[in-house]
Amino acid sequence: MATTWVPDVSPASPFSLANIPFGIITTQDDPTPRAATAIGSHVLDLKALSQSRSLIDGGDQDHVFSQPTLNDFAALGRPVHRQVRQLLQDILAVDTKYADVLKDNESLRQKALIPQSKVKLHLPMRVGDYTDFYAGYNHAYNVGVLFRGPANALQPNYTHLPVGYHGRASSIVVSGTPVPRPWGQILLDPTAEPKQPTTAPCRRLDFELELGCFISKSNSLGDPIKVDNAEEHIFGYVLLNDWSARDIQAWEYVPLGPFNSKNFASTISPWVVLADALEPFRTTGIENKAPRQDYLSESQTETAFDIKLEIDLTTPEGDTTTISKTSSKNLMWSFPQMIAHHTLGGCNLNTGDLLGSGTISGLEPSERGSLLEMNEGGKKDIMIAGMNVRKFLKDGDTITMRGVCGNDGAKVGFGDCRGTILTAIQR
After folding, report:
1. Are residues 337 and 400 in the same domain?
2. Which CATH number characterizes residue 93's domain?
3. Is the pTM of this model over 0.90?
4. Helix (H/G/I), strand (E/B), else coil: 86
5. What CATH number did the domain enclosing 356 receive?
6. 134 is in an annotated binding site
């Protein structure tokens, strides 16, 4: 991979020339939200750059980089995303043939190349709908064992279709946004009869490590997307923390599933990593030995990505512990299969819709993607730095998720997906 002329690009940076993710920024000098890409410890203001040099063939669509979200850019489709990414890589390469565009253009460089420390990152997409799947086989099995035992850990449908539910798009927030502890109905004594809930702040607050997928091209109502065409409807990927109030969920989820236990917040990383940037890291996911329906049968065999994922828990005192390390390859269902199943009945996906993978966990205890699995349903303490223990999250705790793939000098990553728990707002 070529190197870049941009200063201060550490070999360990997740924002190498091999990446070129897209996000939305503002600065103190210009509070207008607009598109940018990350390169090392800097961001490149794409609005400023596109006003000097067209980034899209034809030059009549560069206004997409002046918009407050990436939706209009996403809707242009994967061939355009690929073209823009390649051009930006060429402009930023040390041996660029476009030196006059930015490298040797001091006035534009000073305006467009901004230290990350001087920008504010915003929600990259306008999210119309959010669907959360349950494709992490190991997580589904672990949780099933806790509630139904090993013999009935997975429901009969699990290996036949990508299980999912519709979440709440309005409470999706960008990394760094604080998360107030949610309220809900809770059974303080699940064994008591008759059942009598109380309304109180969540006492078993958890996180869920997921990969999120943004839709680019929409499909028409009644026109399902074929599984082998689904890749053309994918804009890119983010890390997703789908916060979960376990005690609220335990009481409310019968018979229709989670509601207030999930709708209070879902945090995503600020940079959308394009689908093309992850192509070199394709691998096989978890094998599904059950017979699949034709509409879910992919011709592609490497349908997962080997993204190295990790979760840090930082206490209010500032002590940080890495409590999990795993890989995004631990999924049984692929995003193309999720898209094919989502649209099977004719549902129309729209530009900016977000699909969540479901919690990603590996086989080992150190690879689990939620506290519920780590503490085995609240039975075990989790040891963390500063002589502390946790079963679930306390007020002031910060969860930071990271994901990266590739080698030094050519790493592809997402940036932090971070949220701090605030004391519940009084009702």
Report:
1. yes
2. 2.30.30.230
3. yes
4. helix
5. 3.90.850.10
6. yes
